[in-house]
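Entry 12.
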Amino acid sequence: MEQRHHLASRHRYFCRQYRNRGQIQCHHLLRGSPTLRHTPRQLLAKVIMHEGLHSKYQLINDEGNLSYYPTLNKHMQLQAEQIAKGYSYEGEHETMAEGNIPTFVKGMKEFDANYGTCHSNDWYNAIAWMGSLREAPSAWWDLDETTRNKYMLIQRNEQLYMDYLDAKATYYGNKTNKNRAAMNRAKQAVNWNLFNQTRNE
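Predicted 3D structure (tokens):
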């Protein structure tokens, strides 16, 4: 059975959401990495889109306009019902998973195009699902097992690649034998064939 663990837990995002006109301020908290340079730009772009939707959803709810957004309305009602029964339910994440994966994919592709880079469709979809959307949504489990496994392999490999970049930066900052060995282990953990298959398709 698949484990529902957070593959992006090393890169946690603390987002303070302001309800005044849906404004949002995000703080990217990195574990073991002093800068954002080891996190794919596309992943950061997706997180901004993700948190922007949270802000939009909260504004819609605060203004009493849920009836104009059927999918969000449905999941917020389900959330209220499940919480009343003592269960957890992520209504906003369920809404994103049901209707916004293509939005995330399109946004990352457009972001990539600005830098003259591109990735495979499987990579964009895997990154779109990476993180909290895999934690709760029933939509993730509606995907067939082969697709889920493929996306998880890509997600895991991206995490290993970020770990390698962190280890590499640590070694070049302090060239000890210990740090060099750690860098080499991290490099060997990356599936470079899969890495190359998801780039510049």
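Annotation: The chain has nine helices and two strands. The first strand starts at residue 11 and ends at 17.
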